[in-house]
Amino acid sequence: MPATPTSTGIGTVAGLLATADSLLTTGLGGPLTSGSRARGATYALRIALEAAVDAALTAEEAGLRRVSMRARLLCLRHYAGLDLARRANALWSVLSTGCKYHHDEMGPSPAQVRAWQAAVKALVAELAVEGTDQGPQ
Q: Cα–Cα distance between 31 and 65 in angstroms, integer?
């Protein structure tokens, strides 16, 4: 199953951010534990970040949709600057780790996911500005 949705518009990112928020606050119903809600919210945040990176890169190079997210994050340096690309890569890595279930480790706490949520929102906003206002750096 692909991790990145086919539509990378602002509505998709906003919807994913809202889903993460719903998982953290109400749980979307059902028999979800706090840990599974936090992990689900982490997954939604990672997909939102991937969609924002895709949107920033699609404006520049349509061919980049065929490569892995790690490769796209490396290419982001050229289009959004080194600092923004490093922060996006670090956040994507921690979100990817938080999405995975390890039987011998605790999952991310709701407080951790809230911090990641704030970081994703900030990066999504910065990527939107970079994609519309500036060219390659």
A: 36
